[in-house]
Structures are given as C-alpha cells and as structure tokens.
Amino acid sequence: MSERPRVDLYSDTQTRPSRAMREAMANAEVGDEQRNEDPTVRELCSMVAELLGKDAALFLPSGTMCNEIAYRTHTQPGDEIILHETSHAMHFEGGAPAALSGVMLRPLPGERGMFTADQVREAIRGNGPHFQRSRLVSVENTTNLGGGAVWSVRTLNEIADAAHERGLATHMDGARLMNAVVASGVSAADFASGYDSAWIDMSKGLGAPVGGVLAGSHDFIGQALRHKHQFGGAMRQAGIIAAAGVYALKHNVDRLAEDHDNAKRFARLIAQIDGIGLDPDAIETNMIWFDVAGTGLTAPQVSERLLRHGVRIGAMDKRLMRAVTHLDVDTAGVEEAARALRVVVGEK
Ligand SMILES: *Cc1c(COP(=O)(O)O)cnc(C)c1O
Predict the structure, then answer these.
(1) Alpha-carbon distance 278 to 156, whole Å?
(2) Whole-angstrom distance, CA of residue 26 vs CA of residue 274
C-alpha cells in the first residue's frame, strides 16, 4: 500500500519532520563533523551530555549504532553481555553484537522487559578460563517489547551496583528514555546515573528524521569515537540533521505527555471491544500491546483489515498487535483508530 494511512500507529518512527523543524534544519550552521567542526552537532552533543548527566556525547546516524558502538567499546571478542531476552539488540539489530563485536549474549527473562539485580548476580560467570567473560549489563528504558514500561530508579541502581561490584560495565538503551522521564517525573540524569553509557533516539517520539546521541565519560566517548570511524558513522556537514535533534529537545519533550494520554485513551476504548485482550491500567507510556485472539481473527488479518480503513497498527505475531502513539496522531486519530478496530473485528 503506497498511500499513507490516515492514522499511523505502526511506530513512533513514523513521524515526519514538521515545517518548523525543517526550517531549523535549513538554517543550521554546519561544519565538518568528522573534525569536530560542526557547531550544531556540538550543540546537540552538549545538550544530551548534560541531559544524561555525562561528560560527553557522540552524534550517530541511528540508535542501533549507539548500542553497537557502546557494545564494541565496552567489550572484547568472546565477552558476554547480559540483557533482557526481549531486548532490541537481541532481536532487531541484525546479529550485530556477534558480527561487529564478536560477543555472546546472555538473555534474562522477566516481566515487561525488566530483570533484577539478583538475576544479574546469578548470571555473572566465574573467572575460569573455560568461561566467557561477563563484561556488560545492558538495559532498555522504556522497554520496547516489554510494552513501554518504565524502570524504577531503585532497580536500575541495584543492577548497576551488582554489575560494578563484579567489574562489569553498564549500558542503557534509552531509545525512549524521554518517554520514561515525562511519564515518571524522574530526570534522565537520575535514570542514567548508574550507567557508564546511555543514549537517546532522536527519531522515535521526539520526531526528528535521523539520529541518536550516545553519552558517557570522556574516556568512554574518546574510545567510542574510534569505533564511530570504524563503523562508518563519522559524518560531514551533519549539523543539517543534528538541528532537528536540537529542535526536538527544545520543543518535543514535554508534549510526549499528550502521546501517553492518547495511548491510555486508545487502550480504554479498545478494552471495551469484545475479544480484545489488554489491561488499560498497564499502559505507562506510548505503547499499547493487545491480544486479538478472542476475536477469532489473527493479528495479521486485523492489521490488513485496519489498513483498508486508513489505520495502520502492526501485527507482532499471530495474536499480538502493537500500537504506538506519537506527535503525528492526535486524540481524534486514536478515537478513529479505536472505532475502526471495533468495525473490523465485527466484520465476518
Ligand atoms: C528503535 C530502537 C532501537 C534502534 O534505534 P534505530 O534508531 O531504529 O536504529 C534500539 N533500541 C530500542 C529499544 C528501540 O526501540
């Protein structure tokens, strides 16, 4: 289908840069980013370093590259990374931890994409030469396949302490960290304080077209800079795209609360539809996962029927669907999507 759906809840990656954001991009001051001479990239990096409470930051083309450069910087080939079994790096980064860093992954189970410090302590291996070396703990805040859940700072700090006590480093995939911040009132720096590296994605709910920013200590960022070159992530007049990130941090953070309200509204509306399974009280941020098995249709069937009504919601497997709210969908949009869902599950 080439025509754009009227209401696109497929992901918060579907946002298009607004006119004002494009103007900021067109007017950006630029320079050679590889030589650290791009003033707009430098501005964005210092904004994110301060936001995350770190010394320094690197602008990268994608969130995936933020994870993978952090992994490459924290580990050596043969090391092991402890993370959640549903994490993005485990499923959606093309096997990059193995391909680019030569590491093994140690997936942990746990509710809603989260795990505990006790699980981390149990997973850390002994020092014998027959073991791979446990080297890094990686968490996701908010969780993606975990349904947009927000970690408690206490659990995050307990995990970081458990890791650091045994000499492991810690990394936070904060693709949607600003959603966690707006939903909880906890600052990004407080969420990230126990984490040696952390990043935010500019191209999810913040609405920029490209980019992620990875932050950490001077030493970490210095080493990560070499890997940025190795991975081909060093750019030239990247201020054009960094300007969208600067704009997003100034204008699109507080408004994430609207996305969260729309997500809750959508969840409450669809919870009333026969055969739709979800707990509307479990919605914390901008994601709504729901089960359509009770309708007698599969998730791909529901997804396809919704498209004919101008609504796009992704099927994640046979029975589960995921809707994500964002700045290009308003309250009328989620109401329209809920009405369309009611209609399509009623069609025989
Ligand atoms: C989207 C996402 C990424 C990857 O970001 P891209 O900018 O799409 O490369 C990593 N982690 C999580 C949790 C994500 O949702």
Answers:
(1) 27
(2) 49
Ligand 1: lining residues by beta carbon, under 6 Å: 62-64, 67, 88, 140, 144, 173, 175, 201, 203-204, 212
Provide the pLDDT for residue 61. Answer: 97
**Separation between Cα atoms, residue 340 and residue 7, nearest integer Å:** 10
For residue 211, the ligand 1 atom closest to its alpha carbon is 7
In the reported structure, the alpha carbon of residue 64 is separated from the centroid of ligand 1 by a whole-number distance in angstroms of 6
Q: Give the CA angle between residues 163, 175, 159 to the nearest 5°.
A: 15
92-96 contact pairs (CB < 8 A, 24+): 92/64, 93/64, 93/67, 93/68, 96/64, 96/67, 96/68, 96/71
- The answer to whether the beta carbons of residues 158 and 120 sit under 8 Å apart is no
Average pLDDT, the chain: 97
Percent of the chain with pLDDT over 70: 99
- How far lies 65's CA from each of 33, 145, 173, 206, 324, in Å? 17, 19, 11, 18, 23
pTM of the shown model? 0.97
Vertex 231: Cα angle to 62 and 21 (nearest 5): 25
Residue 347 pLDDT > 90: no
CA dihedral 154, 200, 111, 151 (to 10 degrees): 20
Domains observed in the chain = 7-14+255-346 (3.90.1150.10), 31-251 (3.40.640.10)
CA 143 to ligand 1: nearest atom: 13
CB proximity list for 339: less than 8 A, separation 6 or greater: none
Q: Rounded to an integer, what distance in angstroms lies between the CA atom of residue 286 and that of residue 35? A: 38
| Residue 272 in this model has a pLDDT that exceeds 70 | yes
